[in-house]
Amino acid sequence: KNACKKKPCPRNAICQVGFSSEGYRCVCVPGYTSEDCTEDVDECNLGENKCDSNAECINTRGSYDCKCKEGFTGDGLTCTANGCYNYSTLRDAKRKSTYEIPRYSEGVCDNWLSEGWYRFEGAAGTKMPTTSVDDYHCNTVFPGWLNGAEPTVGDGEVFRTVCFTRGADTCKHSITIVMKNCGSYFIYKLVPPPACNYRYCGTD
Fold it and tell me: Keywords in UniProt for this one (predicted)?
Protein backbone atom coordinates (compact mmCIF):
# COMPACT_ATOMS: atom_id res chain seq x y z
CA LYS A 1 0.00 0.00 0.00
CA ASN A 2 1.41 3.33 -1.09
CA ALA A 3 0.81 5.91 1.66
CA CYS A 4 1.81 8.72 -0.71
CA LYS A 5 -1.21 8.13 -2.98
CA LYS A 6 -3.36 10.22 -0.63
CA LYS A 7 -0.98 13.18 -1.14
CA PRO A 8 -0.47 13.78 2.58
CA CYS A 9 2.39 16.26 2.20
CA PRO A 10 2.07 20.06 2.04
CA ARG A 11 2.87 22.13 -1.00
CA ASN A 12 6.64 22.51 -1.63
CA ALA A 13 7.21 18.98 -0.28
CA ILE A 14 7.81 15.57 -1.84
CA CYS A 15 6.26 12.44 -0.36
CA GLN A 16 8.58 9.48 0.10
CA VAL A 17 7.19 6.02 0.90
CA GLY A 18 8.40 4.38 4.12
CA PHE A 19 10.80 5.96 6.62
CA SER A 20 8.16 6.30 9.42
CA SER A 21 5.29 4.57 11.24
CA GLU A 22 2.84 6.47 9.02
CA GLY A 23 4.40 4.78 6.00
CA TYR A 24 5.74 7.98 4.43
CA ARG A 25 7.75 11.10 5.06
CA CYS A 26 7.58 14.61 3.62
CA VAL A 27 10.78 16.18 2.31
CA CYS A 28 10.92 19.86 1.40
CA VAL A 29 11.83 20.61 -2.20
CA PRO A 30 15.09 22.58 -2.67
CA GLY A 31 14.59 26.23 -1.72
CA TYR A 32 12.15 25.58 1.15
CA THR A 33 12.48 24.50 4.77
CA SER A 34 10.48 24.25 8.08
CA GLU A 35 8.06 21.55 9.19
CA ASP A 36 5.42 22.49 6.65
CA CYS A 37 7.95 23.54 3.95
CA THR A 38 6.67 27.12 3.74
CA GLU A 39 9.83 28.92 4.87
CA ASP A 40 12.04 30.15 2.06
CA VAL A 41 15.71 29.14 2.21
CA ASP A 42 17.94 32.18 1.67
CA GLU A 43 20.62 30.57 -0.49
CA CYS A 44 22.42 33.90 -0.78
CA ASN A 45 22.99 34.40 2.97
CA LEU A 46 23.73 30.72 3.55
CA GLY A 47 26.27 30.63 0.73
CA GLU A 48 24.35 27.75 -0.85
CA ASN A 49 24.36 29.14 -4.38
CA LYS A 50 26.33 28.70 -7.55
CA CYS A 51 26.77 32.40 -8.36
CA ASP A 52 30.13 33.49 -9.73
CA SER A 53 32.39 35.36 -7.28
CA ASN A 54 31.90 38.44 -9.51
CA ALA A 55 28.10 38.16 -9.37
CA GLU A 56 25.44 39.38 -6.97
CA CYS A 57 23.14 36.73 -5.48
CA ILE A 58 19.48 37.79 -5.35
CA ASN A 59 17.21 35.64 -3.17
CA THR A 60 13.81 34.75 -4.64
CA ARG A 61 10.92 32.67 -3.29
CA GLY A 62 12.14 29.09 -3.37
CA SER A 63 15.24 29.91 -5.35
CA TYR A 64 17.75 32.65 -6.22
CA ASP A 65 19.08 34.59 -9.20
CA CYS A 66 22.66 35.51 -10.05
CA LYS A 67 23.49 38.82 -11.73
CA CYS A 68 26.98 39.78 -12.86
CA LYS A 69 28.35 42.88 -11.14
CA GLU A 70 29.04 46.07 -13.10
CA GLY A 71 32.11 45.63 -15.25
CA PHE A 72 31.42 41.93 -15.81
CA THR A 73 29.32 40.07 -18.35
CA GLY A 74 27.77 36.60 -18.34
CA ASP A 75 24.82 34.60 -17.03
CA GLY A 76 25.64 35.13 -13.35
CA LEU A 77 26.96 31.59 -12.91
CA THR A 78 29.98 32.60 -14.97
CA CYS A 79 31.04 36.25 -15.15
CA THR A 80 33.98 37.53 -17.15
CA ALA A 81 35.54 40.96 -16.99
CA ASN A 82 34.10 43.39 -19.51
CA GLY A 83 37.09 44.98 -21.21
CA CYS A 84 35.32 48.36 -21.37
CA TYR A 85 35.78 48.64 -17.60
CA ASN A 86 38.93 46.57 -17.09
CA TYR A 87 41.86 47.60 -19.27
CA SER A 88 45.43 48.89 -19.14
CA THR A 89 46.36 52.14 -20.86
CA LEU A 90 49.03 52.88 -23.46
CA ARG A 91 50.02 56.58 -23.18
CA ASP A 92 53.61 56.85 -24.48
CA ALA A 93 53.90 59.81 -26.89
CA LYS A 94 56.56 57.92 -28.86
CA ARG A 95 53.97 55.24 -29.67
CA LYS A 96 52.18 57.67 -32.00
CA SER A 97 52.28 56.85 -35.71
CA THR A 98 53.84 60.25 -36.51
CA TYR A 99 56.86 59.67 -34.23
CA GLU A 100 59.84 58.76 -36.43
CA ILE A 101 63.20 57.31 -35.39
CA PRO A 102 66.49 57.33 -37.36
CA ARG A 103 66.74 54.53 -39.93
CA TYR A 104 68.68 51.48 -38.71
CA SER A 105 68.17 52.37 -35.06
CA GLU A 106 66.49 49.68 -32.98
CA GLY A 107 63.66 51.51 -31.25
CA VAL A 108 61.58 49.56 -28.74
CA CYS A 109 59.27 46.56 -28.94
CA ASP A 110 56.06 45.36 -27.31
CA ASN A 111 57.12 41.83 -26.41
CA TRP A 112 56.87 42.87 -22.72
CA LEU A 113 53.08 43.27 -23.09
CA SER A 114 51.03 40.67 -21.30
CA GLU A 115 47.89 39.51 -23.11
CA GLY A 116 44.92 41.62 -22.09
CA TRP A 117 42.69 44.58 -22.87
CA TYR A 118 44.40 47.90 -23.69
CA ARG A 119 43.21 51.41 -24.50
CA PHE A 120 45.23 54.11 -26.26
CA GLU A 121 45.09 57.40 -24.35
CA GLY A 122 46.77 60.77 -24.06
CA ALA A 123 49.91 61.47 -26.05
CA ALA A 124 49.84 57.99 -27.62
CA GLY A 125 46.59 58.86 -29.42
CA THR A 126 43.14 57.39 -28.93
CA LYS A 127 43.14 54.35 -31.23
CA MET A 128 45.18 52.24 -33.63
CA PRO A 129 45.67 53.66 -37.13
CA THR A 130 43.63 51.95 -39.87
CA THR A 131 46.05 52.90 -42.65
CA SER A 132 49.58 51.58 -43.03
CA VAL A 133 52.39 53.19 -41.07
CA ASP A 134 55.89 53.50 -42.54
CA ASP A 135 58.66 51.52 -40.91
CA TYR A 136 60.82 53.30 -38.31
CA HIS A 137 57.78 55.03 -36.82
CA CYS A 138 56.08 54.65 -33.40
CA ASN A 139 59.59 54.41 -31.89
CA THR A 140 60.12 50.99 -33.44
CA VAL A 141 61.42 49.33 -36.60
CA PHE A 142 58.23 47.46 -37.56
CA PRO A 143 55.10 49.43 -36.59
CA GLY A 144 51.72 47.71 -36.18
CA TRP A 145 48.48 49.09 -37.63
CA LEU A 146 44.90 47.85 -37.84
CA ASN A 147 44.12 46.27 -41.22
CA GLY A 148 40.32 46.35 -41.13
CA ALA A 149 37.28 48.41 -40.28
CA GLU A 150 36.63 49.72 -36.79
CA PRO A 151 33.63 47.93 -35.22
CA THR A 152 30.40 49.57 -34.11
CA VAL A 153 29.15 49.25 -30.52
CA GLY A 154 26.59 46.71 -31.73
CA ASP A 155 29.31 44.48 -33.21
CA GLY A 156 30.58 43.60 -29.73
CA GLU A 157 33.96 41.86 -29.64
CA VAL A 158 35.39 41.28 -33.12
CA PHE A 159 38.54 39.71 -34.56
CA ARG A 160 40.84 42.04 -36.46
CA THR A 161 44.24 41.77 -38.13
CA VAL A 162 47.21 43.87 -37.08
CA CYS A 163 49.82 44.26 -39.82
CA PHE A 164 53.46 45.11 -39.15
CA THR A 165 55.24 47.15 -41.82
CA ARG A 166 58.68 46.05 -42.98
CA GLY A 167 60.22 48.14 -45.75
CA ALA A 168 57.86 48.41 -48.71
CA ASP A 169 55.75 45.49 -47.43
CA THR A 170 53.04 47.05 -45.25
CA CYS A 171 51.90 43.65 -43.98
CA LYS A 172 55.09 41.61 -43.81
CA HIS A 173 53.86 40.00 -40.59
CA SER A 174 50.38 39.95 -39.09
CA ILE A 175 48.60 38.71 -35.99
CA THR A 176 44.95 38.42 -35.01
CA ILE A 177 43.65 40.45 -32.09
CA VAL A 178 40.21 41.11 -30.58
CA MET A 179 38.85 44.65 -30.37
CA LYS A 180 35.69 46.32 -29.12
CA ASN A 181 33.93 49.66 -29.51
CA CYS A 182 33.03 50.94 -26.03
CA GLY A 183 31.05 53.93 -27.30
CA SER A 184 33.46 56.82 -26.86
CA TYR A 185 36.65 54.77 -27.21
CA PHE A 186 38.07 51.48 -28.51
CA ILE A 187 39.78 48.73 -26.56
CA TYR A 188 42.11 46.10 -27.99
CA LYS A 189 42.91 42.65 -26.63
CA LEU A 190 46.58 42.65 -27.48
CA VAL A 191 49.08 39.82 -27.41
CA PRO A 192 52.88 40.10 -27.45
CA PRO A 193 54.05 40.61 -31.07
CA PRO A 194 55.86 37.76 -32.88
CA ALA A 195 59.35 39.20 -32.29
CA CYS A 196 61.19 42.24 -31.01
CA ASN A 197 61.19 45.56 -32.85
CA TYR A 198 57.45 45.11 -33.43
CA ARG A 199 55.18 47.64 -31.73
CA TYR A 200 51.50 48.61 -31.76
CA CYS A 201 50.96 52.19 -32.98
CA GLY A 202 48.50 54.81 -31.81
CA THR A 203 46.88 57.73 -33.58
CA ASP A 204 44.13 60.34 -33.04
Answer: Disulfide bond, EGF-like domain, Signal
